[in-house]
């Protein structure tokens, strides 16, 4: 898939979600935030869609989630706290859908939006009122009790890889993207180590548990050099296959071989997309 096709695919998902949502009278407004609202999306961007419901009951939100899930196969999907639908499709497209109550909408500040539907003009009015307000950072969190644990790694691998590549495309965001990627690399590495210790049945030094695997872990520590970080991410995927397979046996579940193959193929595709962008902009 080339860059043009990838960006078109992103827009196709936006159009399909809008078509689904417009069939429900319970939804007042549909709007985009993030890079798509600014026209700055790249092949590595997430799609952030917000749905403002007419009442706090937010009727039909579960139906909407299920219908979006039917659009195409996923590597990972989550329905978080009754307020967010997160979808990572096998083609690498990531879609985040937020189900907003009117009472919560009143507290929001919108500094940039792209409106798809706004039946009562509420989003346009809110944007006019708050576009110059400073957005307050949200408290960092990761709720590890949500979703399938083994599938969580696919979400993180894509996130890390795209953060690193985005750093090369957005000079002003370079440090922040690479720093975020390093943080995510650490999160993945820590969870893999937790799995290894669990399989060992007791806490011990990693070298004592498995000297060979500790040597592989050492290869996942890198500077902020993007090439080294990409190699570290691929190495983590290899370690995940080793430890994850044993972990799957321990908990009596199947190891997601096909999803791992797909993820590694996406690494190659993302590399090619990045090279194409560099050539086009050089």
UniProtKB/TrEMBL annotation:
Taxonomic placement: Bacteria, Katanobacteria
Molecular function GO terms recorded: nucleotidyltransferase activity
Name of this chain's protein: Polymerase nucleotidyl transferase domain-containing protein
Domain of life: Bacteria
SUPFAM superfamilies found in the cross-reference section: Nucleotidyltransferase (SSF81301)
Record domain Polymerase nucleotidyl transferase: where: 14-67
Organism (species): candidate division WWE3 bacterium RBG_16_37_10
Cited Pfam families: NTP_transf_2
